[in-house]
Amino acid sequence: MAENARHHNPRSISMSKSLMFFGISLILNAMGNVLTLVTASHIKPAFSGSAYWTAAEANLGQALLGNNSLVLFWAFLVLGMLISFLNALLMKKLDWHRVVGNFLFMLPFSIFIQWFSNIFNQIMPNANSVAATVLYTVINFIGVGFIAVAISIYQRVNLVLHPADDLMQILRFKYFHGSAFKAMWASYIPPTIFAIIAFVITFPNLYNFGLGTIFAFLFQGGITGIADKYVFKNLKHQAIDVGN
Q: Which DSSP symbol is given to 187?
């Protein structure tokens, strides 16, 4: 699979099914990201954290743009597009169709992030008891699971990708012989750089990193690999192209 996945292979499912799977994964991903962010911010003192990319982008967005009502939208959109051009470097070619596809993913994704954030921040109060803290921590981990499953679905559909997941897919099939686990870890280098920059700007504050971040770092790639086998298990990787 890994060797063959380097080359462009034909699609085996219809466009209507592709769009259906993509829509499911887009909503699942945005919801998972926001669940990790909201639960992380509503546990006092903060310890749960959010998914790794989510935490890094949210921190850098707040460091550069302040804590305004649209910070998540702009942070996820702009930083996501920066990763799109990193992907072009790794593939050794600038494919404008791919870059536009990344943007077409990021625009509704960023809107969903902001929308879900507004909803969940209103309906989820601060955790003021041990039971609520445990519940929010479980929801945080579930959010990470949603993200991992969503990544599995839309990577296999491969219509348009989040640039971070496009990065993971390039690393997975071009450099790591199909291993989702190794590729996920390698793809964490850019958000680590984002987090370091945010930490330097806002020192000594760094938000949204914690137990959930560690959980995502250790297990998100593995959950994606498991979802490849068991979530919509008849859905195979479509039209993969990671360059030469």
A: T
CB 168 within 8 A of CB 182: no
- 8 Å CB contact between 243 and 171: no
Give the other-Cβ count within 10 Å of 7's Cβ: 12
CB hemisphere CA count around 214 (13 angstroms): 5
DSSP 91-156: HTS--HHHHHHHHHHHHHHHHHHHHHHHHHHHH---B-SHHHHHHHHHHHHHHHHHHHHHHHHHHH
Give the pLDDT confidence of 53-64 residue by residue, as tens digits: 888 998 899 898
User: What value does the mean pLDDT of the chain take?
Assistant: 87
- Contact by Cβ (8 Å): 19, 160: no
| Eight-state DSSP code of residue 226 | H
In order, the DSSP letters of 18-50 are HHHHHHHHHHHHHHHHHHHHHHHHHBSS--S--
Question: Exposed, middle or buried: residue 87 (CB in 10 Å: 0-12, 13-18, 19+)?
Answer: buried
Q: What is the pLDDT of residues 79-122, one digit of tens each?
A: 999 999 999 999 888 888 888 888 888 889 889 999 999 999 99
Cα 222 from Cα 190, distance rounded (Å): 20
Cα–Cα distance for residue pair 123/34, rounded to 1 Å: 13
DSSP secondary structure, 57-99, as one string: HHHHHHHHH-S-TTHHHHHHHHHHHHHHHHHHHHHTS--HHHH
Rounded CA-CA distance 201/231 in Å is 41
**Distance between start and end Cα atoms, the chain:** 16
